[in-house]
Write a structure and sequence with these properties.
4 strands; single chain; alpha/beta
Length: 110
């Protein structure tokens, strides 16, 4: 299963642009979206819902790594947890940190 997670934290940011970017590359992705979220991962209801259903070999697509996490410590922790669970991660703007098993790239920085 492929999931697309989109998030904006201010009124100036565009949720539609993230959705369009993700669906252009992954048209069958199930979209999870949030507006005006807090800074902590636990405050993001839709992200928490997504993390409850994602399984090994599933893929989560983010427009950018900043949409996954706002700070390095919690972002790295989540990245590592998903890597160890066998979840593929795609960052459209930072493909050099993608985690995938489809033979194209696989990176891990810990």
């Amino acid at each position: 299963m492929i999931y697309l997670y989109c998030r904006v934290s201010t009124r100036n940011q565009k949720l539609d642009r993230q959705i369009e970017n993700g669906l252009r590359e992954y048209p069958t992705a199930k979209v999870y979206k949030e507006k005006y979220t807090g800074t902590k991962l636990e405050e993001r209801k839709e992200l928490q819902n997504l993390l409850k259903v994602v399984k090994p070999k599933d893929t989560i697509v983010f427009d950018s790594v900043s949409r996954m996490s706002r700070d390095a410590e919690s972002g790295f922790k989540l990245y590592k947890e998903l890597f160890e669970k066998g979840v593929e991660l795609v960052f459209l703007k930072e493909p050099h940190i993608n985690i995938n098993d489809n033979g194209k790239k696989r990176h891990c920085f810990y």
